[in-house]
Amino acid sequence: RSSYSCRYFVLPCCFFDFHGKYSRRQSKKTQYREYLDFVAQVGFVCGFHVEEDYLRIPSTKRVSFIGKSRTYPAAERALVDKRITQFINSRRACAVATCDRRVGLNHEDHCGGLCKEAGSEPPENETETAGTIWMPGFQPREKLEQVRNCASLPRDFVDEVVLNVANLLLNAAPQKSCSDKQGGNMNTWNQGESLSLREVAEHLDKEILKKLKSEYGGLQTLLKNNHQVFEVLNGRVHIRDWRKEKPPSKTKPEVKRRLSAEAFKTRLCWFFIHHPDGCSLPSEACPYAHGTEELR
């Protein structure tokens, strides 16, 4: 309905109508085939020559529809738009009737035959034409969706929160250390204490929490994004100990192994810079760079 020159491609997947889930009406067809026929019907009602094609994709739902040309001249656009409006309203009326039928009302009496033909007359006050609101109350999403997974937060803000939380965990049990035997020597490395997300939030500045509240997942998402430093398990935050991380599996797909190798030493090691005991791993074993001279 946006313009006469509009063309479209659609790959039907989930079974939805204009106002909710699609309700089956023909038991002789599979649900998928019936839904495909409905999507094709929408294209025909909108005045398109609808073409059907099968995509070469690894999916059971690979039937697509393409509308490249119209079945009517541009001069008849207003008339066709009225027909489209009637079709949409008929589907809405049919959806309401189907719902009522489930509680014992007569579907045919309520639907009034609107779901049979697209050209059925809708109520007078619902006849909308081109240039007016297509669907009262419909709220489309913004053209540009705001990223709210903490990825777009300023780097200095994220670094400040990470450092604050890490110091909080390290200072929660200053005497607690984790022993590691390497080459016969006892090396202590402070792994800190684990705290619940709620306990961590209680120690953070109110302005920081306010800023995180507008992000999806808030503090938890930010900490999970910084998986080099933190491990969040069952609602509790831990300092990540890279000595306990499993070595890369040899059975990993080649692509994943290659990507992992390409990322080796491309970022600075947070522990080497900020942890009071440094990194728990020797330089050659740590996937992160111990100093700028190691950066790739």
TrEMBL record:
Its main location: cytoplasm. Keywords: Cytoplasm, Metal-binding, Methyltransferase, S-adenosyl-L-methionine, Transferase, tRNA processing, Zinc, Zinc-finger. GO terms for biological process: tRNA methylation. It catalyses: uridine(44) in tRNA(Ser) + S-adenosyl-L-methionine = 2'-O-methyluridine(44) in tRNA(Ser) + S-adenosyl-L-homocysteine + H(+). Its EC number is 2.1.1.211. GO terms for molecular function: tRNA(Ser) (uridine(44)-2'-O-)-methyltransferase activity; zinc ion binding. Residues 263-293 form the C3H1-type domain. PROSITE patterns: ZF_C3H1. Adenosyl-L-methionine (AdoMet)-dependent tRNA (uracil-O(2)-)-methyltransferase. Belongs to the TRM44 family. This is tRNA (uracil-O(2)-)-methyltransferase. The gene is Trmt44.
